Amino acid sequence: MRTHVLFTCLLFLSLATIGQDLTSMIQGRIDSLVAEKKIPGVIVAISDHGKHTVYTAGMADVDRNMPFTTSTQCEIGSISKTVNAYVVLRVLASKGLSVDSSIGPWLPDSVRTNEAVAKIPFRKLLNHTSGLPRLAPNMKLNDSTLQPYKDYGASDMYSFLRVARPDSNAKYSYSNLAAGLAGELASRMSGRSYADLVAKYVTKPFKMRSTGLGIHDELPVAIGWIDDKKKAEYWDLNVQRGAGGIRSTADDMLRYGEKMIERKDKEPEQIITNETVAVNERVSVALGWHLAKAAGRSPFVWHNGGTYGFSTFLGYDREKRTVVFIAINRFNVNSQSDKLGIETLRKMAGVQ
């Protein structure tokens, strides 16, 4: 009995030390990012067995002197690809189809005749092995516009796919085009808008009331920055919405991670985080999600996101039931948000 009491006391002391170290690490890191890297603002939100802790530094809206809160809306960028994969899997299941079904039957007639594209399975669209490029070559990115995707619609995408020659033996190659195509095909299969599918399969059942393709007028909105002087616009991704078009809040992102942890081991939820292809010794890809490997334990599940205004990270550890969401309202600082996100998950898991 005494041994048990001593062990329990030592365990509580150890957890308290970990908690203090974590707080010191996170707050010190984000304070430094704002002060030294001239980043406008940062929010780090953590769920530990459903208990939420939030750290902030700087401002979500510099002009209004408004800090980040857990209800501040922002672009999550390519974290949207994880929602997209979930939606696609649910739509496929509703049709009695597997993720290895080919996309051909759901393409327009003019594209279906291109067998190199028609035979691609949905799995390859979702794990970046389709052989399709990151962006279609007929999508002309203009550095002078704040809306690089807005004018690229479904007809433009299908125009390229009619003549595309993807490598059927392609290895991992990150593709916004493939993710956007998967989301568009889910809409064609179901006869519903993509926004309706996101609501039906994710935001409504998961009670993510502040998440979707639009902005909620009643909630605060973070302002993103391209650089020290230029503000960003929230992107209209048009047909590429499945690749990165969702806006959300820290509250909803933690809830989303918690729901992923709680999911039942059945189709389609079971397979969404199964490893499908290795990127390198440390990282592999599931469906939508990436996996960070750690010796002797299950991997950390994560994805990052980047738009002209935001650098974001969402990761979770199903084994320890922890979720980490990070948003920085500045373009192209994912090296900072990713590093802090993975480091936080590892520290909470006691992994060196």
Summarize the structure.
This protein has about 350 residues and is of the alpha+beta class. Helix content is about 35%, strand content about 15%.
Layout of helices and strands:
Blueprint: H1 2-36, E1 41-48, E2 51-58, E3 74-75, H2 80-94, H3 109-112, H4 115-118, H5 122-126, H6 154-161, H7 176-190, H8 194-203, H9 241-244, E4 247-248, H10 250-262, E5 277-278, E6 283-285, E7 290-292, E8 300-306, E9 311-317, E10 322-328, H11 334-349
Antiparallel strand pairs: 1-2, 1-10, 3-4, 5-6, 6-7, 7-8, 8-9, 9-10
Helix pairs in contact: 1-11, 2-7, 2-8
What does this protein structure show overall?
A hairpin with a 4-residue loop joins strand 5 (277-278) and strand 6 (283-285). The model is unreliable at 1-18 (pLDDT under 50). The protein has an 8-stranded antiparallel sheet with strand order 2-1-10-9-8-7-6-5, sandwiched between helices. The chain has a two-stranded antiparallel ribbon with strand order 3-4. The protein has 352 residues and is an alpha+beta fold. The chain has helices spanning 2-36, 80-94, 109-112, 115-118, 122-126, 154-161, 176-190, 194-203, 241-244, 250-262, 334-349; strands at residues 41-48, 51-58, 74-75, 247-248, 277-278, 283-285, 290-292, 300-306, 311-317, 322-328. Helix 2 (80-94) runs parallel beside helix 7 and helix 2 packs across helix 8.
